[in-house]
Amino acid sequence: MQMGEDVDPLLPGHKCIAIFGFCDIRKFTDATEVLQEGVMLFVNEIGEIVHGVVDRYQGAANKNIGDAFLLVWKFDEDSIHTNGETGELELVPSNKVSQLCDMSLISFLKIIGLTKRSRKMKKYANHAGLNKRMPNYEVKMGFGLHQ
């Protein structure tokens, strides 16, 4: 498919196995109401951390929707086989598979650490409006991993 072309749902695709990650910014509605037009900078600064870490740990940012980041760690074709009885795709147990699983979890731990240490995030922890609305405010995120 060339850049700019539309997806044709009638064309056959192929299945893959991947680890899907989700993270969202907690208390985002409150932060939006306080920061107003500054909320885009807020999301982009968090996105810079999320995207950078996920990329560094072999994942990819798939989509951002408001306060949510959808992430994926896709297994290589040589890590997957088709079950002869069921026809379902399955992972081939290997160090490579284990390592990618570990990398997805480590990514989220790194994101937590970086958001706590980031100078850019500290300015929000010290933001008068955010602290008035949410005393002792700090940027917090929720996370989920699925396969």
TrEMBL record:
InterPro entries: Nucleotide_cyclase. SUPFAM superfamilies: Nucleotide cyclase. It comes from the Eukaryota. This is Guanylate cyclase domain-containing protein. The lineage of its organism: Eukaryota, Sar, Alveolata, Ciliophora, Intramacronucleata.
